[in-house]
Amino acid sequence: MRSKYGRIFVLGCLLLIAGISVIGLLAYRDYPGWQDVFSMSVAHMVAGKGVSVVQGLALGLHPVVILMLATYSDIVLMLISYPLLIFTYLHFFESRLFQKHMQPVFDSARKRIDRIGRFKIVGVFMFVWLPLWMTGIMVGSILGFLLGLRTWVTLSAAGLGTFTSILCWLLFSQQILTAVAWVDDRWVAAVVAVLIVCVFVWRWIRNHRIRKKA
């Protein structure tokens, strides 16, 4: 906890507690829309930014709220997962826990080094930003570590990348929903729910296959 990774982890935990406390306070005061905020937050953690942005729009949340909430969720995820992954990589590389559950994250990042590694900071930003890659902020931050970038540079580039990526998803999703405005909101919500389930099942199958190979 005295290391820089420990301080980053503590910061991530404090931000997570703050977010949960805010939602709890809104629920306690029965603030309108708190269920929608909670629902989008859960969708983001389970299925990622693409699905959560669409869900936020389908629930009628303001675009600025969606952008801030999705970015906040990604930043919290990065600040908690990044120090845990790096600390385990540095001190428990040979452990079964690392090889089984965390090694795939590093392997995924290493696959991109030859392609974008020469761009350093810009490479990390582009890796996290490009919406169609669905790469995510966690692998992007690990990529920055493997490239030897300073911690604050890595986290800043990944954070800016995810903000820009979510903004692109938001603008794209708004255009799509506007084009199909005649569709009942219940159908939109049903499609989002199916997407969440599909993403969750796909991740479970992928992780199961990785564990079998290990």
Kindly list the characteristics that best describe this protein:
mainly alpha; 9 helices; 82% helix; globular
Brief rundown of the structure:
The chain has one domain (about 5-214).
Write the layout of secondary structure elements.
Blueprint: H1 4-28, H2 34-47, H3 49-58, H4 63-91, H5 96-116, H6 121-129, H7 137-146, H8 151-179, H9 185-213
Helix pairs in contact: 1-4, 2-3, 2-4, 3-4, 3-8, 3-9, 4-7, 4-8, 5-7, 6-7, 6-8, 7-8
General description of the model:
Helix content is 82%, strand content 0%. The protein is mainly α and 214 residues long. It has one domain. α1 packs antiparallel against α4. The longest helix is centred in the middle third of the chain and has 29 residues. The two termini are 31 Å apart.
Structural class: mainly alpha
Note the gap between the termini.
Answer: 31 Å
Unreliable parts: none
The coarse overall form would be globular
Structural domain tally: 1
Name the average pLDDT: 79
- Content of β-strand: under 5%
The major beta sheet can be summarized as:
none
Tell me the series of helices and strands, N- to C-terminal: HHHHHHHHH
